[in-house]
Write a structure and sequence with these properties.
The chain has 612 residues and is of the alpha+beta class. It has 8 helices and 25 strands. Helix 2 runs antiparallel to helix 4.
């Protein structure tokens, strides 16, 4: 109450001061001396020095007054407005992550994506005054571009947001592959294309034409993203190789398991089908989005992958409760800072051993300081036909069971499931708060958390440099990833992402939904990006992966080089083009080095949303 009184008093004072300044007459000019002055000798004018720009006053939003820390909003109407999630492959995330590494966006949680449109807007508004005051041209331009993308969420003045609806984007994409076979086996040999929602692709021309529709009204929101996919024919494994890889997974390749989504056996003809990428309905309650449908997930602060979850596989249908705005817990937040959490559960598809298991995930993230964020995540795969029924009892048992399990319990109807845990942090380094961000993401199986069992954990580490010294338009990022740890548990592919009962483990429709590095792999990624503008980039990317020889006979090696361009043809039309060369070796399948050349071309439209 006291704070509201102070805020109201300050507003009245500012308004009175402005009115007074407008109505106060100007001072009369000083009386001029009319006495003639002697002529001055000729002189060379001395150029005036350019004045130092004054530091602008902090910019205070009128529509969303904010509290002092971490994005809490005093406008009660604002807390009752729901909004859709921003797709994790949107250009907005790289832009916002860059702002974070430049020292802004302090209230954003990097490890918990996707963000809702309004949560992103609030984080940007919290940073607006600092960005404007620092006069960093790159940050100001990026802020303007992001706010423009969210213009429908912030009507001018004191007008409340009403209906927001329409086509958010529409796109036409063509992928052309040539020169050799593609890799499409994230569970064993590797993938030629990663973090692409498990889209089908083959040798030749592949097409993906679709769009996204959103609607927001009060607490309620709807998002539907679908596309018509045409994938070229592709070469698959022989029956003998398929049986060999199935044996690696300890699954007999007979009967019901003779065809597995995790093993691309046989040549596949061209496929044409419509598929939903997202389809979500949500209601906003007490700063939570409660959702049901097919939705994005990305857990981890890295760009190249998420050890706990990513968009490498097709999204699952799930029920979700997500605290989308930071939560301040009295007294406790003085120690751990604001908190966010995200809980969901849903079925997995493409499993045969056992068939039709379910998965649930719980994640909690904390920001003890504006420069440090850390998070803990736990997921469990449980149930499955002929193993354990999907009931409230088995769900609660998998949710609350943290003890070691015996073999008898694992193979019984009371099996708590395959449990995986993750830990991550993002830290803006001391003395380099606006120059370097250190990232770490990790995962382990059957341990409470990776820090408690580092020798049995997989890691993704990285550094983000948002602006190179003396080259502010250049950005650099490097990430290294390892799941081939040195203990005896990491042999024959039975380390990260694998489990004794759920033997097709961390997959949905055959693709790993965690990090694309997969089982017993090591490698990494590097990006060098030139920013033409916040929405336009030229980028070079390098990706490398190696699988251990004790997992896949003779091992595998991938080296991928990509040059990409993102360019705005008009204010609402975007061109994305990318050219890749991949050299890969997998002696268990193909003799010698294989060379794959790829061109990706996409035109994307961003129509103006209806907002009233």
């Amino acid at each position: 109450m006291l704070k509201r009184i102070v805020t109201a008093s300050a507003a009245l004072f500012i308004a009175f001061s402005a009115t007074y300044a407008q109505n106060t007459p100007a001072e009369p000019p000083a009386t001029q001396n009319t006495t003639p002055q002697p002529a001055m000798p000729p002189y060379r004018p001395v150029p005036e020095q350019t004045p130092v720009p004054a530091r602008p006053a902090p910019v205070t939003g009128t529509t969303y007054p904010t509290r002092a820390a971490y994005g809490y909003y005093e406008d009660e109407d604002d807390s009752k407005l729901g909004s859709t999630y921003i797709s994790v492959d949107s250009w907005m995330y790289p832009a916002m992550l860059r702002l974070y590494s430049m020292g802004y966006l302090d209230t954003a949680f990097l490890s918990m994506r996707p963000w809702t449109r309004r949560a992103a807007l609030h984080a940007l508004q919290e940073s607006k005054s600092d960005i404007m005051a620092d006069q960093n041209d790159t940050a100001v331009e990026t802020l303007a571009a992001l706010l423009n993308e969210l213009e429908a969420e912030r009507p001018g003045g004191q007008i409340r947001r009403g209906l927001v609806a329409g086509v958010e984007n529409a796109y036409v994409r063509v992928m052309a592959n040539g020169g050799g076979p593609v890799l499409r086996d994230s569970w064993h040999l590797g993938q030629s294309y990663i973090n692409d929602y498990g889209r089908p692709y083959g040798e030749g021309f592949n097409t993906y034409d679709g769009g996204t529709y959103i609607a927001e009204w009060g607490r309620f929101s709807l998002k539907v993203r679908g596309e018509y996919q045409g994938s070229a024919a592709r070469k698959g494994y022989s029956p003998a190789l398929a049986a060999t890889l199935s044996a690696v997974d300890y699954i007999p390749y007979t009967g019901f398991n003779a065809r597995q989504d995790t093993i691309p056996e046989g040549n596949t003809p061209r496929e044409d089908a419509f598929r939903l990428i997202n389809a979500t309905v949500s209601v906003h309650l007490l700063n939570h989005e409660i959702s049901f449908g097919k939705m994005d997930n990305w857990f981890g602060p890295a760009r190249g992958g998420g050890m706990a979850w990513s968009n490498n596989a097709d999204n699952i249908y799930a029920f979700r409760i997500n605290r989308v705005e930071p939560l301040h817990i009295p007294l406790l937040s003085w120690l751990i800072g604001p908190v966010r959490y995200d809980i969901f559960l849903g079925p997995l598809q493409g499993h045969t051993y056992p068939n039709s298991p379910w998965v649930h995930s719980s994640m909690f993230a904390f920001k003890p300081t504006k420069n440090l964020e850390f998070s803990f995540q736990r997921s469990a795969i449980w149930g499955g036909k002929a193993h354990a029924p999907i009931t409230l009892h088995t769900f609660l048992h998998s949710f609350f069971h943290f003890d070691d399990t015996s073999s008898d319990l694992k193979f019984s109807r009371d099996d708590p499931g395959a449990r995986f845990s993750a830990f991550s942090f993002a830290y803006r380094l001391p003395f380099l708060r606006r120059s370097v961000t250190l990232l770490l993401d990790s995962t382990t199986h059957d341990d409470v958390t990776p820090p408690s069992a580092p020798r049995r954990a997989g890691f993704r580490t990285g550094l983000e440099i948002p602006q190179l010294p003396f080259a502010p338009k250049w950005e650099a990022r490097v990430e290294a990833v390892l799941t081939d740890y040195s203990t005896s548990r990491s042999t024959h592919g039975t380390g990260n992402y694998y489990e004794t009962v759920q033997r097709q483990g961390y997959t949905n429709k055959g693709f790993i939904f965690g990090d694309w590095i997969g089982r017993e792999g090591k490698g990494g990624q590097a990006w060098l990006t030139y920013h033409l503008s916040p929405k336009e980039t030229v980028e070079f990317q390098y990706r490398r992966k190696k699988n251990a020889k004790d997992f896949v006979d003779q091992g595998t090696t991938q080296n991928t080089y990509t040059l990409s361009l993102m360019k705005r043809l008009t204010a609402r039309t975007e061109l994305d083009a990318a050219f890749s060369y991949e050299a890969w070796k997998a002696p268990i399948w193909q003799t010698g080095q294989q060379n794959l050349f790829t061109g990706n071309f996409q035109i994307k439209w961003y129509p103006r949303l209806l907002a009233r």
